[in-house]
Amino acid sequence: xxxxxxxxAKVVGTRTAKAMAEELSLHTVRDLVRHYPSRYARRxxxxxxxDLEVGDRVTVLGQVxxxxxxxxxxxxxxxxxxxxxxxxxxxxxxxxxxRHARLAVGAWGLFAGTVxxxxxxLQFSHPDCQVLDEATDAEEWATAMLPIYPASKSVSSxxxxxxxxxxxxxxxxxxxxxxxxxxxxxxxxxxGLMSLAxxxxxxxxxxxxxxxxxxxxxxxxxxxxxxxxxxxARRRAAALEPGIARPRRAGGLxxxxxxxxPFALTDGQREVGEALAAEIGREQPMxxxxxxxxxxxxxxxxxRAMAQVVDAGGQAALLAPTEVLAAQHARGIGALLGPxxxxxxxxxxxxxxxxxxxxxxxxxxxxxxxxxxxxxGSAGIVVGTHALLSEGxxxxxxxxxxxxxxxxxxxxxxxxxxxxxxxxxHVLVMTATPIPRTVAMTVYGDLETLTLxxxxxxxxxxxxxxxxxxxKPAWLDRAWARVREEVAAGRQAYVVCPxxxxxxxxxxxxxxxxxxxxxxxxxxxxxxxxxxxxxxLDVAEALASGPLSGLRVEVLHGRLTPEEKxxxxxxxxxxxxxxxxxxxxxxxGVDVPNATVMVVMDADRFGVSQLHQLxxxxxxxxxxxxxxxxxxxxxxxxxxxxxxxxxxxxxGFELARLDLETRREGDVLGAAQxxxxxxxxxxxxxxxxxxxxxxxxxxxxxxxxxxxxxxxxELAAAVAALDAGDAADWLERA
Length: 734
Ligand code: ADP
Ligand code: MG
Description:
Blueprint: H1 9-12, H2 14-24, H3 29-33, E1 39-41, E2 57-71, E3 78-86, E4 89-96, E5 108-114, E6 116-118, E7 121-125, E8 128-131, H4 138-142, E9 146-148, H5 157-168, H6 171-177, H7 185-191, H8 196-204, H9 209-240, H10 253-260, H11 267-280, E10 287-292, H12 298-311, E11 315-319, H13 323-337, E12 354-358, H14 364-376, E13 379-384, E14 398-404, H15 411-418, E15 426-431, H16 437-442, E16 448-452, E17 462-468, H17 473-488, E18 492-496, H18 536-545, E19 553-556, H19 562-573, E20 579-582, E21 595-600, H20 608-615, E22 625-631, H21 638-648, H22 652-669, H23 689-704, H24 713-721, H25 724-733
Parallel strand pairs: 4-7, 10-15, 10-16, 11-13, 11-14, 12-13, 14-15, 17-22, 18-20, 18-21, 19-20, 21-22
Antiparallel strand pairs: 1-9, 2-3, 2-5, 3-4, 5-8, 6-7
Helix pairs in contact: 6-8, 8-9, 9-23, 9-24, 10-12, 11-12, 13-19
Bound molecules: adenosine-5'-diphosphate and magnesium ion.
Magnesium ion is lined by residues 298-299, 404, 589.
């Protein structure tokens, strides 16, 4: 007897099950029924062939129009060319030494492969084919809408479809399998939602687009409710546990910091500072998200809060996403505090504290010393990477956790650090990526937001342009000439590439594990048919011996040891280097105000928010900045349009929206992205604002009753099943 937990090997056989697990992350019947079609094919209105882009892995429905087999000119064997089309569009399929008997003119079929281009025409070579037989596939063929599933190399859309047939059977079978419904009946009634079984059935066997719409609505409710109940439960638990009040004290480190600042705080920094100071002074643990544009000066806000906690006898931890950034923070804070940050040293101020850097790359002795300072409390300010989360890091009295550049950290990690306090510490999370309202509500449902809208005065601003090298090769020469001009004027430049080079298999960072700021961005993970992305090592060499010869060019990437990375960053900061060719290790937070130009190579390989972050590295001082997005993508392609949009605005909110939109697009087209087990597949933070808000209200109401979730075992089970790690994964992705 099948149930949702049944392993797929019992249903589809071991080989298919293995491929499903490895390639699509489908392990159980539960995973399979939630493996939704990415779209539905309808005869006559199929694939808009014009939307296909080279490199997409897709499944298309079409009718065979022409079959032509001929011997190959330069090799032995034959070449078969098949033209398939639907409506206006058509596409070419090529097979070498292979004749598909059933591919006859007039036959309809599904064809899956990776789109390539041949003389300007789209083609698949050796696609997977499923010729539709009107007799045996009568059932699917009769339904108006043919589901197309996210597929992989060895698991085609039709294999998924056949497996689902084994699992679901007919509508009655679906009812039996999916009788336990996580959305309570009264919630369904209030919002006019169908049962889970009906929704799943319809999602896989719709007859009309309205069927899909209604099924989606219901299935999104599942996702939203489970997520909101999880978040609400977390909030309730956090509210019950008192922390420690760390009120402001005059004449201490906080005042010393203010006196030492080389600039006047902006009004925004002052206001946010007041709000934080008040909350840290209360027993109820603070829980704040500080959102502020790149360059708005969040670090100093955090430092003032940390100083307040130190003045009250506690310790503050600043968690940074990369070693480069952690080292930069420690150095910057140390420099600002001067002797006040070196208590216990000969030239230190005995009334001060210690600023301790703790990263995974410290050698054993240095690590022991750092751990001791953290444990005995002499380190008032502890700056570190993920290493701060590891076992064996004990704080004497952790009072405040600051997480810089939140989007690199999952909720789980935040919680792990929070758990290092004897009582819950205050938490400040900082992000430069602006967050649309729904995201704030869902993802950061347990954080209240503060915003820094203002940039410090006197900033030059950044202008951006796309350099479409395929169409305007001369513009690239102009770009390098601009770099030379800036360097001649005493400024510095970054050149960013997606890859390190010299066999990149392990584009990972140091002992902290994969450096999240390095290597190719995830959205370009399967770029099989395209040329490999440009690499730091190659580009640096070509520049140094070519257009930038005579300039001091240095490289920075995640394969360097942390010491090397740090040394090179320092050399750049002290102007011993003119041009830094780097991977996205420099994406987050790096602060060299004298750098004014950023050239991003293969800019189309980066996501929108990555580009925005990268651009934030220039024009941090008073000189105006220039960001050049170099790409081979045609200006008229969707990629070209996206780059033009990034270039046209520096409004972080607009870009955050664009980012969400393009990722959705990726979900619709990309097969590989679908296998995640996050529990969130349909819900769109962009489009489902109302639904999410309604689910949030229902979640609060459900938890607010005397019985709480106990009255709803199915929902409780779904909440428990939402794997904590997977949830974090999704939150991070959003
Ligand atoms: P982000 O918010 O991106 O983390 P930073 O905290 O790194 O920004 O600040 C960017 C730069 O602006 C730093 O060089 C910092 O010293 C400087 N800065 C911060 N606040 C002010 C201010 N009020 N006036 C002038 N410069 C400031
Ligand atoms: Mg920062």
